[in-house]
Amino acid sequence: MGLSSRRRFLNLIVNNHIQGARSLRQIDLTRHKLFNTTPPLPQNQNTSESDALQPQETTLWAGNPKIKNKNLRTIRLPDPIFDFRSSPTDFLWYIDCLPLSNGSSKILCADQSGRTALFDADTRMAEAMPFLHRHKFSPLSIFVPGAGDVNGGSLYIMDSRPDRELGLGLGHDDATQPSYQFESFVYRSHAMSWQHERLPRPPFVRDPKLYENSSTRSVITSHAVIAGGGGAAAGAAQVCLSVDRAGTYCLDTATHAWTQVGEWTLPFIGKVQYVPELKLWFGVCGKDMRLGAADLSAMAVVGSSQPPKLVGAWKEFEAPEGWTEVRRPQIVSLGSGRFCVARFFRALDYLMALFDRYGEPGEEYYTVLTGTDVVPCVTNSGSVSGSNGEVELRMIRHNSRCHVSYGSDFNIETVF
């Protein structure tokens, strides 16, 4: 993927003011100048680290912790491409919007009744999908290209906080029994349609030790695709799940067999994305919520039991005083080592207290989008390819843009 393959548009899922309703919108990154026009240069023996990390034009620098709110450039949301609303079948209406994959303009929507539909932001077309066997209370989606027929793929839908699943009989635990919490949509090229499958139950939902306390559930803390579907290793793709108190498991997309890789968990939280140009996986570090990178390719090797380590971690934005981060950040890979990092904040507006009958300050919600480049840099003499020098990753900060909302209406929920 070259520079010309970098994405121009950023997709947003926005919370509307109607219960169970969302909208899909697009931001033109070139119009809002999230990235500087001068391409970043890898650091070598002739380029200092400070020069490599500075923006290439005079715009807002996201790394200034003392920046005032008025100096943080704001953006207005464009008109919706699609409006989604859950089916009115129950008193509680809600809808989940799950991006198909990184770099894709498609999104899967599922409501509380299990109805699903696939929307494409680029073509402005919608496609009917099979019903879920059971709706998910906190779903996550993982797309594996080529896991189905030729030119096909599989979309895995899983509950991120799964219940315990026992066998059918008393004291019986059948590992091959299909799960109602782990499902997949497989695209069959010959039929030109998506077909529905239930997956075998993973080992951690059958472990009674994880469910000794009825008020707690196991939580899938991070997920990734390795091997054939997301890395350089040969063979079938592996869907990797890290589960708190249980370890890390891989699902073979060809055989649908679960394997425990280790009792450790990945150093990330949420979705982990593979960047082929850098041959590394990127995600949000679970320890400090920074953008981080690690090599997960060894997890595809049978018998590998060592947890992967971070090879780099960077903080691209320092919040102004009085801002509180309210949700985990989201990372979107835009191609060729370029990322957009979205962070979500809340702040109190004490000026609004003057107009409130009880003197209560108002709440403002901020979504900050920051453009970054991660590039290989030579720290000693040599070339970027690594000959006669040591190569490490460096982050180049570009610009930040901010969207402001009040209350839950028109909050940005998902960036992809």
UniProtKB/TrEMBL annotation:
InterPro entries according to UniProt: DUF1668_ORYSA
Domain of life per record: Eukaryota
Region of interest: Disordered: 35-54
Name used for this protein in its record: Uncharacterized protein
Source organism per UniProt: Urochloa decumbens
